Amino acid sequence: MTGLSRATIYRRMGAGTFPKSVDIGGSDARSAPVAWPLDEIEGWIEQRKNARANVAA
Description:
By secondary structure, the chain is mainly α. It has one domain (6-55). The protein has two helices and two strands; from the N terminus they run αββα. Strands 1-2 form a two-stranded antiparallel ribbon.
C-alpha cells in the first residue's frame, strides 16, 4: 500500500513519522505478526498528499 520497504517503515516509526504497528500475534518475538490500522495509514497517505500539494502551490 505504501511502497516502502520494511526497514524504511520501521525507521520512520522510530522517528515518529509513520504510524505505530499493532501486535496481532501476541508474541514478543521479533518475527511476531503486526498490522497497521487502515485509518492511520490512510491518514498518513493523505498527509503526504497534502504536503506535496502545498509544495507545488
